[in-house]
Amino acid sequence: MPKTKPNPKKPTPKYKRILLKLSGEAIGGEAGAGICPEAIHEMATQVREVKEMGVEVVIVVGGGNIFRGIQGSERGIERVMGDHMGMLATVINALALQDALEKLGVQTRVQTAISIPQMAESYIRRRAVRHLEKGRVVIFGGGTGNPYFSTDTTSALRAAEIGAEVILKATKVDGIYDSDPKKNPKAKKFENLTYMEALQRQLKVMDSTAFSLCMDTRIPIVVFDFHQPGNLVRVINGEPIGTTVTA
After folding, report:
1. Residue 33: its pLDDT value, please?
2. Which domains, ranges and CATH numbers included, belong to the chain?
């Protein structure tokens, strides 16, 4: 009888529990506006891949594809009102992502920092952790529920609260550069940075509040190109993808 070839050993995931930060612009696809079904399906597919590896996943979504509070205030909308509108935009994106994941057979729960009981659960830390233990993906919408705080800061806060081992910031570029690589072909990419270096250089990939909170809680950040198929799995497996920010 012919010998059967042994199955190659699958790599052990580097992380057991992750927080994935998705921008609203990414949900908007190439245009960066509205909700692009193809883009959100690709996101859901990559999330399902890491779920099948046994990794626990929580997601924080932005709302810039629909409305961004700070831009609204620049156009005359009162800042707090604009931020509330932006929070609602993140809830819309969270529901869209939930729909895409569940169509792929991934059980999800949406939790919001603002109470919308007809659409989603209110955020309760212990309940979120229990969902993870039951194998569900948890999507956080509504930011922190407070104006003046970005979804980057929400990511740092929620990661600390639910015990995530890393924040994976999904972007359209392959890491952090010292200047915009789209405008400067000589822009230098960083393989590794410390939180303090990121703050001192005023790198705009995350706001200073988010960086400071990650520094205090010692949660590493990996910034990577989410638009390359398979990159999320590569990061989970510990491959040197993107830029890592640590102490």
Report:
1. 86
2. 17-246 (3.40.1160.10)
